[in-house]
Amino acid sequence: MSQTSTVQELSAPIVAEPKSLDVLDQLLKPEVQESLTLLVDNLPKLAEMVNMLTKAYDFAQNVATDKVLINDFAQGIGEFVKPVQEKAKNIASAAIEAGERSQADVSTTIGLFGMLKMLKDPEVQKTLRFAQAFLNVLAERKN
After folding, report:
1. H-helix or E-strand containing 19?
2. Structural domain harbouring 70
3. At what angle do helices 30-41 and 18-28 cross, to 10 degrees?
4. Which pTM value belongs to this model?
5. Are 39 and 46 in contact (CB under 8 A)?
6. Number of domains present in the structure of the chain
7. How far apart are CA 45 and CA 48, in angstroms?
């Protein structure tokens, strides 16, 4: 009860200001007082959290504004992407060329003996071994 009378004594000189009354009315509510007590009890934890967030922000700010780091990162990504990009271009051009060749040889039919002859080709053998190994791996992972 003394807490309420103290707040009322403090609010007496401020009665003329409506904003102050709103704040005081809010402070008189029990749920607001409970929340304030909880905040005060947890102030050390909150201060520690704010300190950690400030450090994280400072680190992120330093990383984001460091031109040397950004350039090094961009060069590193470039060195990684360049070989992949070249491989992708080679594969795409080979696929386009193979498509053009297959369209050009429409009149040629591949029969059973033609297939048997192709099976002797080392590249076909290599591709078939890869396909067999790939399918085996997929089957093992499925089970």
Report:
1. helix 18-28
2. 66-108
3. 80
4. 0.41
5. yes
6. 3
7. 5
> For residue range 40-53, what is the model confidence (pLDDT) as tens digits?
999 999 999 999 99
* C-alpha–C-alpha distance, residues 64 and 74, integer Å: 13
Query: Are 24 and 30 spatial neighbours (Cβ–Cβ below 8 Å)?
Result: no
Q: Is 28 exposed, middle or buried (0-12, 13-18, 19+ CB in 10 A)?
A: middle
Average pLDDT, the chain: 85
Residues 98 and 48 in one domain: no
Query: Do residues 18 and 56 both lie within one domain?
Result: yes
Both 10 and 61 in one domain: the answer is yes
Q: Which two tokens stand for residue 71?
A: 């350039």
The alpha carbon of 57 is separated from its chain's Cα centroid by a whole number of angstroms, namely: 18
> In angstroms, rounded to a whole number, what is the distance separating the alpha carbons of residues 141 and 119?
29
Angle at 27 between CA 22 and CA 29, to 5 degrees: 100
24 and 78, same structural domain?
A: no
